[in-house]
């Protein structure tokens, strides 16, 4: 029995997006900074892992940490200005790699000569979804038209 491989959305990306959604909600509610403990408890995320993830998000200027008794994390900019792709790259690096290379850096001989074009198209399709969907779009459920179209495809929710 063969195994199928696909695009791997890591726990780091999943936890980062979930944490950022909590911050976006706090921003919308004007409830101020949230501690790592508060973020972790709201989505039942591992605290230590979340600390490391938020360090990456801070380095990417997607969050800002505030010190003091009412300290914690806030978004680095408006949620409508942060794409899911920004979050993905901040915690996991490039959206697509082929054996450690960017898709456009791959090169093949013979019958596989045109394979880099396919890898670049795969990366472009990931960008189309992840870079065109803002944190605010995801928080409110008002996804971009192209994402809604993809979700409406007859086999979108079918495993294969």
UniProtKB/TrEMBL annotation:
Gene3D superfamilies: Winged helix-like DNA-binding domain superfamily/Winged helix DNA-binding domain. Pfam families: Rrf2 (PF02082). The keyword DNA-binding applies. Keywords: DNA-binding. It comes from the Bacteria. This is Rrf2 family transcriptional regulator.
């Amino acid at each position: 029995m063969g195994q199928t491989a696909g695009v791997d959305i890591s726990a780091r990306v999943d936890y980062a997006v979930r944490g950022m959604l909590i911050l976006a909600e706090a921003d919308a509610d004007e409830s101020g900074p949230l501690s790592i403990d508060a973020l972790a408890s709201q989505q039942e995320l591992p605290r230590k892992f979340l600390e490391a993830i938020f360090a990456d998000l801070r380095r990417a200027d997607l969050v800002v940490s505030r010190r003091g008794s009412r300290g914690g994390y806030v978004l680095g900019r408006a949620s409508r200005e942060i794409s899911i792709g920004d979050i993905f790259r901040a915690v996991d690096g490039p959206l697509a790699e082929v054996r450690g290379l960017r898709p456009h850096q791959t090169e093949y001989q013979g019958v596989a000569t045109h394979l880099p074009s396919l890898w670049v198209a795969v990366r472009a399709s990931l960008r189309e979804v992840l870079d065109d969907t803002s944190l605010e779009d995801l928080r409110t459920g008002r996804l971009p038209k192209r994402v809604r179209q993809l979700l409406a495809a007859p086999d979108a929710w079918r495993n294969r």
